[in-house]
């Protein structure tokens, strides 16, 4: 009996030791995995900060070197676009009196020949040159100076003609957490933005003309291609498109749209699967 008890005790100690060894191995593996995840996360944060710092440096240098001003329009060179009936109560008549954005593109084009414009959105930090490539992927991962950068830059859809705006001109930018690029576009969904009518204007300057755009729709939507359609094969199709965009809006803006309007679409990521979208119509242009 004594011998059997000793064997049982020995086997029990072996089992406990084996369990402890297995537990230690599992803990070690989990600890190692946690270290890898931590190292990966730290690496991502450092790379994110490096990209942000580079973008902020480029942005600062551009704004120090380039002449950017807001000025009264030259009425001899200015056209009100598709105005409503003057008897109507419309904010259109207020907005066309606003100053125009005027940018000297001479040095900008030397810095980057892909430059096609400059955009400023009231009530946000969006105030950047616009570039355009032969696809919609290059400037998702390259900065204005064409260096590799995950922050990307503000860019026009490659299908658009930025010298003579299409029915729907589309501008993209990453929704960066530090509110660079289109990171502050999500502000348009907050009441303190849309309740201030002075914010409902986009100013866009190109080498050819200075323009004003009146906002008529803002919303979030799962990623899709419909709202970035740039070609329409009939007035009926375009009218249906405009009606859809207007009806999607979180806010009922005073601006009405019709088939004689040209519109500007701003799009950014809210998260991996949803987009923040703004639409505005062209209301004033000044030939440079």
In short:
By secondary structure, the chain is α+β, with helices and mostly antiparallel strands.
SS field, number of helical segments: 5
CATH topology of the largest domain: Sortase, Chain: A
CATH class value of the largest domain: Mainly Beta
Mean residue pLDDT: 89
- Write the CATH homologous superfamily of the largest domain: Sortase
The total beta strand count reads 11
Radius of gyration: 28 Å
How far apart the termini lie comes to: 107 Å
Q: Helix fraction?
A: 25-40%
Unreliable residue stretches = none
Number of domains: 2
Which oligomeric form is depicted?
single chain
Secondary-structure element pattern, one letter each: HEEHEHEEEEHEEHEE
Structural class: alpha+beta
Strand content: 15-25%
Largest sheet, strands/sense/barrel: 9 strands, mixed
Shape: elongated
CATH architecture of the largest domain: Beta Barrel
Structure description:
The protein has 5 helices and 11 strands. With 288 residues, it is an alpha+beta fold. It folds into 2 domains: 1-65; 70-287, Sortase, Chain: A. Strands 2, 4, 5, 6, 7, 8, 9, 10 and 11 form a 9-stranded mixed sheet that branches. Strand 8 and strand 9 form a beta hairpin. The longest helix has 64 residues, at 2-65. The protein is elongated, with a radius of gyration of 28 Å. It starts with a helix and ends with a strand. The mean pLDDT is 89.
Features:
elongated; alpha+beta; 11 strands; 2 domains; 5 helices; two-stranded antiparallel sheet; 288 residues; Sortase, Chain: A
